[in-house]
Amino acid sequence: MTLFDSPAFDAHEAVHAFHDAKSGLKCIIAVHSTARGPSAGGCRMWAYPSAEAALEDALKLSRAMSYKNAVADLELGGGKAVIVGDSRTQKTPELFEAFGRAVDAVCGRYWAAEDVGVTPADLAHARKHSRYVAGLDGHPAASGDPSPVTAEGVFRGIRLGVQRAYGAGLEGLTVAIQGVGHVGGLLADKLHAAGARLIVTDVNEASARAVAGRTGAEVTRPDAIFDVHAQVFAPCALGGAINLETLPRLKARVIAGGANNQLASAEAGRALYEKGLIYCPDYVINGGGIINVAAEIRALDRGGAYEPAWVEAKLSRLMQTLDEVLQRSKDEQRPTHEIAGEIARARIAEGRGASAHG
Ligand code: NAD
Question: Which of 15, 227, 307, 309 has the smallest C-beta neighbourhood within 10 Å, fewest atoms?
């Protein structure tokens, strides 16, 4: 199969591959759409088993960014970068400087920020070579790590889902969290403060233990998280957590978490709906982080400062959109991911129309 025939390709505008022999950088920058504005999305560093796996991840994540940015009503298109490598052992300042040069070569059609395996400190090296790097610390426009805003959006989204499924608040409910890194860890703190009980897992056991130490969470094995008794399942690790194998094992009636690309397939989305579960679509509930990054891009473009009030207004509006998606799913008896997809595609098409006419 060629790149253009791959199901993940989905009419990407551009796919760039970069190699820097000196630093060892191997990265892909995928630009799915610039219909609503320059594309923006995080950079993931992961030890992909093959170049094909890296490419597929970049394409799927970049397309999801188009949808996420449209649903959050940002003047941004969708793009994503992946760096092939182990973030625990292969990070160097030179690698991220080379990444900055790669971002700059895309000439402003892609804005980078952090994703799994990449921190604001890493991006500071990239920023030396390109202005198209956001999610940084230490300047007036800087928005910092997007994870706290992502976690806040996921927390509010869980509250909406729980209200609809159980007609109750979070007090005394059990939430199972898969992956307690940046987003999952902060989410655990918020849920704990709201009185929820937690069951957590992480392939990095030390992360799970640390969260348990401060929240009283029960720790379980990564594979056992699908079988626990919980009212909410919050995927906060990597993609594909919801598939035809894991779905029958889940006891929760609400699926709401921070991870990107939670549904392994559209079939899994349908099956989930037919099982009577409420799914908060990933690119809707986890849009807080890119809203925060957009605030930095906006401030840089205007020569102004980061505005928390703008972020809060966008996040509140996003949560209204999530509530509308859940309501329409009930009224129209259709899966939430189909409804959210329609909203996103309509907004991307509007952007395309606007750019074609002026
Ligand atoms: P992170 O790397 O800090 O956390 C991910 C955690 O998941 C790690 O602790 C990792 O050990 C764990 N993990 C990986 N595979 C696992 C498995 N099979 N079972 C259990 N644990 C596993 O990353 P993050 O920034 O917290 O992002 C988490 C997810 O949220 C990713 O899918 C990311 O793309 C998405 N996301 C993040 C943000 C953000 O602002 N950070 C925004 C939107 C979406």
Answer: 309
Tens of pLDDT along 116-138?
999 999 999 999 999 999 999 98
Tallying the residues shown for the chain, one arrives at: 358
- Ligand 1 atom 9, closest CA: 181
Q: Which atom of ligand 1 is nearest to the CA of 289?
A: 40
**What are the structure tokens assigned to 163, written together?**
């209200």
C-alpha of residue 29 to centroid of ligand 1, in Å = 20
DSSP 17-50: EEEETTTTEEEEEEEEE-TTSSEEEEEEEE--SS
358/346 Cα distance (integer angstroms): 18
Model pTM score: 0.95
Domain count across the chain: 2
What residues line ligand 1, using a CB cutoff of 6 Å? 115-116, 146-147, 150, 178-184, 201-204, 207, 222, 236-238, 258-260, 286, 289
Structure confidence by residue, pLDDT tens digits, 78-115:
999 999 999 999 999 999 999 999 999 999 999 999 99
Of ligand 1's atoms, which has the minimum distance to the CA of residue 207? Answer: 9
The active-site residue, picked from 26, 60, 68, 80, is 80
Is 91 in the active site? no
Question: Based on the domain organization, do 279 and 337 belong to the same domain?
Answer: yes
Q: Could you give the CA distance from residue 310 to residue 131 in angstroms, rounded to a whole number?
A: 22
Verify that 167 and 116 share a domain, yes or no: no
pLDDT > 50? residue 358:
no
In terms of domains, do 129 and 152 share one?
A: no
To test the pocket of ligand 1, the residue of 76, 180, 203 to mutate (highest count of ligand atoms within 8 Å of its CB) is: 203
Measure 350 CA to ligand 1 centroid, in angstroms.
32
Q: Per the domain annotation, does 141 fall within a domain?
A: no
CA torsion through residues 326, 332, 333, 338, sign: negative
Q: Is residue 264 in a domain?
A: yes
Does residue 275 sit in the same domain as residue 172?
Answer: yes
